[in-house]
Amino acid sequence: MLEVIRLNSSKHPKPESLEFSYGTAGFRMLAKNLDSVVFRVGLLASLRSKALNGKTIGIMITASHNPPEDNGVKLVDPMGEMLDQNWEVHATALSNCNNVEELCNCLEQIISFFKIDLTTCSKIVIARDSRESGLKLLESTIDGLKSFNTEYQDFGLLTTPQLHYIVRCSNDISFGEASENGYYKKLSNSFNNIFHYENENENGKENSTKICVTIDAANGIGADKIVKLRSYLSEYVQLELVNDKFMEPQLLNVACGADFVKTNQKLPNGINSFNLNTLFCSFDGDADRIVFYYVDSDKVFKLLDGDKIATLFAFFFKKMLAFLELDVSIGIIQTAYANGSSTTYIEDNLQIPVIFTPTGVKHLHHKALDYDVGIYFEANGHGTVLFSQNFIKSVTNYQSNNIEKKRSINILKEIVNLINQTVGDAISDLLAVLVILNFFKFKPSDWDSNYKDLPNKLLKVIVKDRTIFKTTNAERSLVEPKFLQSKIDQLVKSYNKSRSFVRASGTENAVRVYAEAQDPKSCDELADKVSALVQEYS
Ligand code: 16G
Ligand code: ZN
């Protein structure tokens, strides 16, 4: 077997001067540098599958919201979750072997460390986003898979969450049908049923209020998937698409998409501001993030970001659980980027505990598992809700003769299937938001009225070595460089309701500075002053 690996790997040499790292969301960089990395990811994925007795592992080739010339790759574990963190170091080590000898040694170490039986079958499902470089990288990944005789199924172009869903179904048939159509069927069934329950009046007739939303698909693969999903949805929802040119990969994420809207706090290309108080949303390039927005009656752009989605979900579940008197725990997981007003609203108004974790979905996801209803969202729009077995049992066994209670319990049962519990999913989150807005008959401005964001600013500083910036307390305080945190604390003290923190990016060669304060001027000043402190390291 190692002979085949030797032969194949010589076709995928590592670029000499580059150092790779399996970061927050896998490997991500300029696509032209990734050939050796994806080949080796193919090798590692095969070993991961063998180590787990032939469970199906996922490989997703995507660089999410990054520019068109980038690409990336990440592994998905059997239940649809991110790769086990203990394996990340092996991914990094493999990717950095300088020659075939080192590569074979590294593989042998992994095989003996995990006591992997190479005769076990290995199975992989693989997909990619709409980037131009995707096909070539796919072929190189497959070279890696073939080196270990791995069985693989190529699902072509998918959103990242669809691939997570398919991995889960491949290992757990109770989750759904392991196909793209299976995904649409599962989501649309629940969505249509919930709309039916929500709109049915006392006489059993349905009110036909139509709910409309315009989706900016970032010219990414989400556009194609929305077109396919549409045919499964009831006539009560109208999904309009803009920035849907996924076949023109040079347009991907350019002046559009969730990251653009969140960072610039303005409408993307392709959406004009004349439709007041109607709902818009933006996906990112691989459709695992979503942010919403609207233009209010004063023609002001209003963002409904991940914090607003989390608080809408929390409001809904809190109401439902109270109405049904269900004794289950509920918690919200945020990162340091969550707006301070959202945290105050959740703790003080909704009276739900908030837990903070470092940035990156794997951290939030892990913590959300501690609750019966664990809601996690990053402010950038990446998140979902996890439900425990205890919650599912309580809902399934619930008995009541009260019509309203029966209706509520039916909605909860369906929502468990509507929300993609494997990972944050723009399509599934969109549908969940629509059923909640329809449930309360909320307009975007009603949703937005729960709290007002504190002015906030995110800046990027390029430094010589970002690895010297070490944090603690869920990335909210620096431990190194020494004395920098006390300087930041001094600055924060001089502004009302303010907060600022500094952390090294996990996806870019930069340090990020976040600041928020009571008014925009203070916020700008604070962000600039903290950035100036960080610039001393550039
Ligand atoms: C990745 C993460 C995202 C996080 C972002 C932070 C996943 C799937 N994606 O895109 O959750 O917000 O990195 O980027 O975990 P940064 O470290 O450059 O600020
Ligand atoms: Zn993404």
Automatic annotation (TrEMBL):
It comes from Pachysolen tannophilus NRRL Y-2460. Its cofactor is Mg(2+). GO terms for biological process: carbohydrate metabolic process; cell wall organization; chitin biosynthetic process; UDP-N-acetylglucosamine biosynthetic process. Mg(2+) binds at residues 64, 284, 286, 288. Substrate binds at residues 378-380, 503-507, 512. Keywords: Carbohydrate metabolism, Cell wall biogenesis/degradation, Isomerase, Magnesium, Metal-binding, Phosphoprotein. Belongs to the phosphohexose mutase family. The keyword Cell membrane does not apply. CDD domains: PGM3. It is an enzyme of class 5 (isomerase). Catalyzes the conversion of GlcNAc-6-P into GlcNAc-1-P during the synthesis of uridine diphosphate/UDP-GlcNAc, which is a biosynthetic precursor of chitin and also supplies the amino sugars for N-linked oligosaccharides of glycoproteins. Residues 56-86, 117-168 form the Alpha-D-phosphohexomutase alpha/beta/alpha domain. The lineage of its organism: Eukaryota, Fungi, Dikarya, Ascomycota, Saccharomycotina. This is Phosphoacetylglucosamine mutase. SUPFAM superfamilies: Phosphoglucomutase, C-terminal domain (SSF55957), Phosphoglucomutase, first 3 domains (SSF53738). It comes from the Eukaryota. Pathway: Nucleotide-sugar biosynthesis; UDP-N-acetyl-alpha-D-glucosamine biosynthesis; N-acetyl-alpha-D-glucosamine 1-phosphate from alpha-D-glucosamine 6-phosphate (route I): step 2/2. The active site is at residue 64.
